[in-house]
Amino acid sequence: MIDRAPTPFSSVSRRDFLKVCSLAAAAVGLPASAAEQMAAAVQKRKPSVIWLQFQECTGCTESLLRTGHPDVAQVIFDLISLDYTETLMAAAGHQAEAALDAAVRENDGKFICVIEGAIPVKDDGNFCRIADKTALHLTQEIAGRAAAVIAIGSCASWGGVPSASPNPTGASGVSDVLRNKPIVNIPGCPANPYNLLGTVLQFATFGTLPALDDKGRPKFAYARVIHDDCPRRPHFDAGRFSQRYGDEGARQGFCLYKIGCKGPKTPNNCSLVPYVDTPGAWPIGIGAQCFGCSEKGIGFNLPLFETVDVQGATPPAMYTPIDPASGIISPVATGVAGLVGGALVGAGLAYGARLSRDDRDGEARDEEKP
Ligand code: SF4
Ligand code: F3S
């Protein structure tokens, strides 16, 4: 059992704790006052979370643990009662099985079941067995008794890496094998921990789940495609593209569409909520094209170099314009997305502005739009 904090503030300062609640509230689109309510709710009773892992690489757990400033890995143990997790618990073998049984019994019908990893369904699910039970059986048995289920990462959401063609094990997402349960999909490889934290805290505080789209994803994180809020977008609009991997254009921060960026068809909030709380720590931020890791049918299926259709080629009126005289992104850009918070958006804009100032490279300039 990992439930070492008798109060939410035992291992972090109240300030840091509220900061995380504020980020989580903002991430799910709730007002600032919700952060106080979240903090009060978990003070009374921390939500019980049972975390199951099947066909996966533990990347989503790793991502959760490597967040910092403040240390979310530390805070999350104060926010939730993580009653079962194979990666982090000390117990093994029969002890672990007993811990799972006890956690389900004590919180029957009230716990949140987080599932990381795909569920193989071919050959009666025999490709993944834990304690002699298949992942398929465990999903139906354990998640079937939860109040709500969160499929974290692309593998649990729709099959992810293990489902790549020809999908020899029949790797499937949670919603393919579990019916009649509220299921929230938070795809990504790895998923952003704040999207999980916000969803869990909203459920714990208000007993509601975030509004979901037709693929079961929270709209607060997946309503807009990467392309809408990408710091390289002004270069796309201006026709400045990287033409080859690692060329001068890529280094100058030009758009990566022509080398296969899937941002135009991939809904996610990667550019707005930085991984490990570090602005720039996401694929496009470090110069790699988005390969659509969170999008079924794109990530792990389309070749990296293949381009996708661009939806909404005309930039939204609200999108950051480039000042033609200076080539610098206009500061009148606060309408961009607005999903998370001024600081995060501001960081993205500052980065975009820096890219824009360096836009004079002749070699990679391409006046033709795709
Ligand atoms: Fe950003 Fe990719 Fe869109 Fe270019 S194509 S603006 S790199 S999301
Ligand atoms: Fe994945 Fe693309 Fe975000 S590859 S992490 S959805 S930028």
Summarize the SSE layout with pairings.
Elements lengths: L13 H14 L5 H12 L3 E6 L5 H7 L6 H8 L1 E5 L7 H14 L5 E5 L2 E2 L8 E2 L2 E2 H8 L5 E5 H6 L12 E2 L1 H4 L5 E4 L6 H14 L12 H4 L10 H6 L9 H5 L89 H16 L13
Parallel strand pairs: 1-2, 1-3, 3-7, 7-9
Antiparallel strand pairs: 4-8, 5-6
Helix pairs in contact: 1-2, 1-9, 2-9
Bound molecules: iron/sulfur cluster and FE3-S4 cluster.
FE3-S4 cluster binds next to loops.
Could you characterize the architecture of this molecule?
The protein is α/β, with parallel strands linked by helices and 370 residues long. The protein has two domains: 14-222, 3-Layer(aba) Sandwich (Rossmann fold), CATH 3.40.50; 224-332, Cytochrome-c3 hydrogenase, C-terminal domain (Cytochrome-c3 Hydrogenase, Chain A, domain 2), CATH 4.10.480. It is 32% helix and 9% strand. It contains 13 helices and nine strands. The chain has helices at residues 14-27, 33-44, 59-65, 72-79, 93-106, 135-142, 153-158, 174-177, 193-206, 219-222, 233-238, 248-252, 342-357, and strands at 48-53, 81-85, 112-116, 119-120, 129-130, 133-134, 148-152, 171-172, 183-186. A five-stranded parallel sheet has the order 2-1-3-7-9, with helices on both faces. Strands 4-8 form a two-stranded antiparallel ribbon. A hairpin with a 2-residue loop joins strand 5 (129-130) and strand 6. Helix 2 (33-44) crosses helix 9. The longest helix is centred in the C-terminal third of the chain and has 16 residues, at 342-357. Mean pLDDT is 80; it is low at 1-9 and 321-370. The structure holds iron/sulfur cluster and FE3-S4 cluster. Iron/sulfur cluster (SF4) binds next to helix 11.
